[in-house]
Structures are given as structure tokens and as C-alpha cells.
């Protein structure tokens, strides 16, 4: 299965987003989040991503939309 990489887009369910302090200032390490859904944020240009980390743990992170790179299966 191939993948498409896009930056600055709102992730869809199933998309994989690499999370690091560069895109999520409160992140304490680098990991990949598989998105289940997104939540709006009161701050323009930001969003919450809710999903699961590579090890299966649930995750929720606040990210800058213009700095993320989304891996979308096609």
C-alpha cells in the first residue's frame, strides 16, 4: 500500500502524524500518532489530535496545523 505525505492539512481518521516538540510544544518525545479524530482548538492554527501511539496507548496532543506532516494511505 502506498502513502502520500501532506503538510499543513487537517488529518483524517487513520492518518499517521509524526509528533515532536517541533509540531507540538508540549511533547516530551518523538513518536507517531495514528489519528482517530480531531478536536477544534480555541487558538487559530491549532488543533487537538486524538488517537493511538505506535505502542497502542491512547494519546491526545495539541499541534500547530501549519507544521505537521500527515502520512495518508492511498
What's the gist of this structure?
The protein has no helices and six strands.
Structure description:
- The chain is mainly beta.
- 0% of the residues lie in helices and 53% in strands.
- It has no helices and six strands.
- It has strands spanning 3-7, 16-19, 31-40, 46-53, 58-64, 69-73.
- A four-stranded antiparallel beta sheet has the order 2-3-4-5, with no helix packed on it. A two-stranded antiparallel sheet has the order 1-6.
- A hairpin with a 5-residue loop joins strand 3 (31-40) and strand 4.
- The chain is globular.
- 16% of the residues are buried.
- The model has no long low-confidence stretch (mean pLDDT 89).
Q: Which structural class matches the secondary elements?
A: mainly beta
Number of strands: 6
> From the alpha-carbon coordinates, what is the Rg to the nearest angstrom?
11 Å
**Portion in beta strands:** over 45%
Order of strands side by side in the largest beta sheet? 2-3-4-5
Q: What is the molecular shape? A: globular
Q: Summarize model confidence as the mean pLDDT.
A: 89
Helix content: under 10%
Stretches where pLDDT falls below 50 for ≥5 residues? none
Number of helices: 0
Q: What sequence of helices (H) and strands (E) makes up the elements?
A: EEEEEE
Largest sheet at a glance? 4 strands, antiparallel
Q: In whole angstroms, how far apart are the ends?
A: 7 Å
